[in-house]
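Sanity check. The docking grid for potassium ion depends on where the pocket ends up, so I'm generating a full predicted complex first rather than guessing from homology. Inputs follow.
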Amino acid sequence: MTFLALDVGNTRLKWALYDAPRVGARLLAHGAQFLENIEKLAEGDWHALPAPQWVVGCIVAGDAVKRRVQEQLELWDVAPQWVVSSLSEAGVINGYDHPARLGSDRWVAMIGARQRLLARGPARPCVVVMVGTAVTVEAIDAEGRFLGGIILPGHGIMLRALESGTAGLHVPTGDVRDFPTNTSDALTSGGTFAIAGAVQRMVENLQRHCGEPPVVFMTGGAGWKMAPSMSTPCELVDSLIFDGLLEIASRRVG
Ligand SMILES: Nc1ncnc2c1ncn2[C@@H]1O[C@H](COP(=O)(O)OP(=O)(O)OP(=O)(O)O)[C@@H](O)[C@H]1O
Ligand SMILES: CC(C)(CO)[C@@H](O)C(=O)NCCC(=O)O
Ligand SMILES: [K+]
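Predicted complex below; grid placement will be based on this.
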């Protein structure tokens, strides 16, 4: 009864194989592949896996990438189900003007966060931070309503934009400092403060709106780099998207 969860971002495809499509299932194997190496999956990492009975994923890369992923999935006799953001699913209500236009990775991460929050206590407002190619910061009230969220460039895009838009900024990665005194540290700290500051602002917005401090969850490939520099308390949960995919799959499989 194995279940394969897929998270196809703009930089990497992340996958996780579980022994069943339910929250709390046992993780059997997992991995990540840069999008340019998708063609290696069927003959590489996936070759010796037990065939999954279900495949559910979220994808924010373009249609060409989706076709390349589906080609690799032909290794098994299973049709992938791609999550599309809807008006409501798994206890989260979508406040986006056009619900289907919300990135499915954002939707799935919010469902994972909400499930995690409710599993351990009373409902609270919640901020969900994803630090990937792009950074997103979402606000959910205590009733599970997604109020709205922001999108900003990730570390890599910020640095590349500065490098290509200036004459004098081509330097190695620096350290995060309160008061940077060289170009490398100034760039690295600038990107980090931009993300931490955006999160702090959304936490303040949601606290003002709901009248109580929110729980903050953070996920994404570069989350561990951001965690030490956050100015508000924040829980790093690497598996937030997979938690959401398990929750969605358990409801669909029934
Ligand atoms: N300190 C840093 N300096 C420069 N670039 C960074 C830094 N940290 C992360 N990045 C970039 O941030 C981006 C996101 O990192 P990563 O691929 O690990 O996340 P991801 O969650 O897999 O992304 P996605 O889901 O969007 O594919 C990458 O483009 C990576 O090159
Ligand atoms: C914002 C990203 C790139 C984050 O991965 C993705 O969720 C996306 O492409 N979203 C579509 C636009 C939106 O969410 O409003
Ligand atoms: K992502």
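Relevant for the grid: Residues 88-244 form a domain with the Nucleotidyltransferase; domain 5 fold (CATH 3.30.420.40).
Also worth noting: The longest strand covers residues 145-153.
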